[in-house]
């Protein structure tokens, strides 16, 4: 089996660097001008003004030489590309689903699945919302219902499986609205909005039993499920030393299909897919994909993108990759913890989440403390992070009020195979620098609010 062998430094990178991208350093004045120009929204800053980019782990991974070599094998035929058949066989092997429909990225797959499975008036239970996932559920006429365990909403709770589904919450929904109003359970691996927190295999087993009894499918958001498998290997009885690929298959085999943003686990810059076992659902997805994405053998991707994805999946399931990936995130997390920075516990897989409520207790949640903190980190050192709090949660479609989530977080998202340990040290120093002057940080008011997924394009000004 493929396990890390160096006993003193178990997460040392299992690769060496062949090509580099030069970074630009800026002055504080330049960064201040840039964040004002961007309406205090890190999504609207320009990449050239960023020193260390922790906005997202989505599409920001460094591909391997083998992935790049695969791109030269792109079969750019409109139909029947060889790369499609290769990707299909890799998804069947590692994820285990029978059918594959490629999409340009995760939300393309969410659109297809939501339109096919959800009817007007349905309720979709899930282990916490994700922004695009919930929006597609709502656009298809559904209402998202949060059925994650309570621990997930408490940043200081160190429960090891904060991604678990609370079966009592699920049963209360199903009993209340009836099974025919619940088209599927939406189950996300390593729950992003909870801080990158896994579900356990034991929880999934119980969920499967419940869903079998009530004839409700389980649709996985597989985006970071290889990382979830790693945590099961580390934390769950009976899984120590088990191959990650076997754990991934065990998860997928207990679900009925998935949406996937391959831009995360699968180490590519673009791509996604919908996969399922049901022949009828597959036929509908194959038909619908030509409306929104492209023919069913490319789904909005180039042949070369599918080839890079197939190779990326193979690399992502290796233990040495995962040890380095999670090890680096944990290295940064432990440094911040040691300095007393309030974080979501336990440290998740893809990011460190700073608890902005405790970092900036003097700022009311209606003045967007996490948004203000993300802007401040950018001003401090050119580190670009992302708000995951009041702005991301958006408004309740019925009341029109801010949803005011319990979690008001800033996400320091670590791209895979991109930054070094010294970069992580710089990040820690910057966060600590801002923490020391936190009393002087002011809240923000929103001066422009787009209708959909407002966090991407909203603009702010400091409150006076
Ligand atoms: O960005 P997409 O369309 O490839 O994927 C959407 C998506 C679906 N599910 C989950 C759990 C995600 O994290 C996700 C995208 N996440 C982004 C862009 C992120 O920065 O976390």
Set down the secondary structure blueprint.
Blueprint: H1 28-37, E1 52-53, H2 65-71, H3 82-94, E2 99-103, H4 106-117, E3 123-126, H5 131-139, E4 143-146, H6 167-177, E5 185-188, H7 201-214, E6 218-221, H8 225-235, H9 244-253, E7 257-261, E8 272-276, H10 279-292, H11 303-316, H12 319-338, E9 351-355, H13 356-359, H14 369-381, E10 383-384, E11 386-388, H15 390-393, E12 409-413, H16 421-436, E13 444-448, E14 459-462
Helix pairs in contact: 1-14, 2-11, 3-11, 4-5, 4-10, 8-9, 12-16, 14-16
This protein binds ligand PLI.
Ligand PLI binds at residues 56, 58, 105-107, 130, 132-133, 188, 192, 221, 223, 261, 263, 272.
Q: How would you portray this structure in words?
A:
The structure is a single chain. 39% of the residues lie in helices and 12% in strands. The relative contact order is 0.17. Strand 5 (185-188), helix 7 (201-214) and strand 6 (218-221) form a beta-alpha-beta unit. The protein folds into 2 domains: 28-57 and 319-462, Aspartate Aminotransferase, domain 1; 65-316, Type I PLP-dependent aspartate aminotransferase-like (Major domain) (Aspartate Aminotransferase, domain 2). The chain is globular, with a radius of gyration of 21 Å. The strands form 5 sheets. A 5-stranded mixed sheet has the order 2-8-7-6-5, sandwiched between helices. Strands 9-12-11 form a 3-stranded antiparallel sheet. It has a two-stranded parallel ribbon with strand order 1-10. The model has no long low-confidence stretch (mean pLDDT 96). By secondary structure, it is of the alpha/beta class. The site of ligand PLI has 15 residues, from helix 4 and helix 5.
